[in-house]
Specification:
Layout lengths: L1 E2 L14 H16 L23 E2 L19 E5 L2 E6 L5 E4 L22 H9 L4 E5 L9 E6 L6 E2 L2 E6 L4 E9 L6 E3 L2 E6 L4 E9 L4 E11 L4 E8 L4 E10 L5 E10 L4 E10 L5 E10 L4 E10 L6 E11 L5 E10 L4 E10 L3 H9 L4 H19 L6 H17 L4
Parallel strand pairs: 3-7, 6-9, 7-10, 8-11, 9-12, 10-13, 11-14, 12-14, 13-15, 14-16, 15-17, 16-18, 17-19, 18-20, 19-21, 20-22, 21-23
Antiparallel strand pairs: 1-2, 3-4, 5-6
Helix pairs in contact: 1-2, 3-4, 4-5
């Protein structure tokens, strides 16, 4: 095990990539200055962090990879990251997939613009200060991906901190499709700070889906950022299924006129899970659009948090932006917080939000039971129907069946065990 000290820094990927070396420097400096976040801070409200990063250690090397999981899909190229280290890469002809140490620095010259700030919090600082490896997926100008690149991110060594990183670059007029699945065993405690950053060039298109399928004792503090150029298009899907604590802080910077961001997600908490989403959509150019659509459910004593901010800068006229968050609370001890926010500095925009938190619909239950279903199966049908709208909007239909099975199994299991 390697403690989080300067002696543990693994920096071979920094060579020839100035922005990476600078982030390393900033991260090490910020890690010494920043304290662990506390629930007294508004941004970390509802989250109980009962550990300190300084007490954790990195694995000496990657452990044995897990067997393929239920979210594995037919792909066009793949990569595996185990305990923060790239262990397997298969690159297709039209899209480049590589460990960051093998990437041409010229390909990554502009990628630094989508990096998460090193001083965002102590987790970001630790990631840049002590993380050493990454997967890069690069689509050259006008390249088109025939199928998704599949990235399997695993934490397998119990008691360690894992710092995996994924860097996506879609150059002008390219089309890139990526699925990232995060996994760990149910046995043993794991702490993970995964980063995903994406640069989407002018008139380029990126489809990316992330699935949090962490084991039941994993604490994951994920951070993501996407930057969109002129007429660029992002469709991002997110499924929050596993983990003791699954937090995702994601930023979309819409910098180019005519760009569009589409975010679709779902999450389902059980036992005492905490699923925490912090979304920041920044419109920084005119004639841009965004739509965020998230659905979630909580049962047992689990808790979900959604905080969404749409910010429209003064220069970003003629913007059309919307965010929706719908939540089902299925047990008396479960809870859901939904806090959408708008910050509008321009004067010619269309912008809005919708948010609901509540139980299953009694009128729908009555209707279904009047058609011959018992209460148990009527409620199952309601839960399934609630999630279908989100599943149907996800960017990768290949993932629909395993995601559908995961959320349905959670609810059915709770019913059968008498927890509902």
């Amino acid at each position: 095990m390697k403690p989080l000290t300067v002696d543990s820094v693994n920096a071979p990927a920094d060579a020839g990539i100035p922005w990476l070396a600078e982030l390393r420097r900033q991260g090490l400096e910020a890690f010494q200055q920043l304290e662990m976040p506390s629930s007294v801070e508004e941004e970390w409200r509802y989250v109980d962090l009962d550990f300190d990063l300084a007490d954790l250690s990195l694995a000496d090397g990657p452990g044995a990879p897990m067997a393929p999981g239920e979210y594995a899909i037919p792909s066009n190229g793949h990569a595996t990251i185990v305990d923060g280290t790239v262990v397997d890469v298969d690159s297709p002809a039209e899209i480049s997939v590589m460990a960051i140490g093998d990437a041409d620095p010229a390909l990554l010259a502009d990628a630094g613009g989508s990096a998460i700030p090193a001083d965002l919090d102590r987790f970001a600082a630790a990631h840049y200060g002590f993380g050493g490896d990454a997967i890069v997926v690069h689509a050259a100008k006008a390249a088109v991906a025939e199928a998704p690149v599949f990235i399997d991110v695993q934490a397998v060594t119990p008691g360690t901190l894992s710092l995996p990183r994924v860097v996506l670059v879609a150059e002008t007029q390219s089309e890139l499709s990526v699925v990232v699945v995060y996994r760990s065993p149910d046995e043993g405690e794991f702490h993970v700070v995964p980063h995903l950053q994406a640069t989407v060039g002018d008139n380029a298109r990126l489809k990316v889906t992330t699935v949090q399928a962490w084991g039941s004792a994993t604490t994951a503090i994920g951070q993501q950022r996407v930057v969109l150029g002129r007429d660029a298009h992002l469709h991002h899907g997110e499924a929050g299924i596993g983990g003791a604590l699954g937090r995702l802080h994601f930023i979309v910077d819409i910098d180019g006129p005519g760009a569009h961001s589409e975010i679709t997600g779902l999450y389902f908490g059980e036992d005492d899970q905490v699923l925490d989403y912090r979304a920041f959509i920044n419109h920084r150019a005119p004639h841009t659009t965004s739509n965020m659509f998230l659905k979630g459910a909580v049962e047992d004593a689990s808790h979900s948090v959604f905080t969404g901010l749409i910010r429209i800068e003064e220069v970003a006229q003629r913007v059309d932006a919307y965010q929706t968050n719908r939540n089902l609370v299925l047990s008396d001890d479960a809870g859901a917080e939904s806090v959408p926010n708008l910050e509008i500095l321009a004067n010619d925009v269309k912008c809005g939000h919708a948010s609901t938190v509540g139980p299953l619909d009694a009128d729908q239950r009555y209707y279904l039971m009047s058609r011959g279903l018992d209460r148990i199966h009527a409620d199952r049908l309601q839960v399934r129907g609630f999630f279908e709208e989100a599943i149907g909007r996800m960017p990768h239909p290949e993932l629909a069946e395993p995601i559908r099975a995961a959320v349905n199994d959670k609810y059915v299991r709770a019913q059968e065990e008498g927890r509902l």
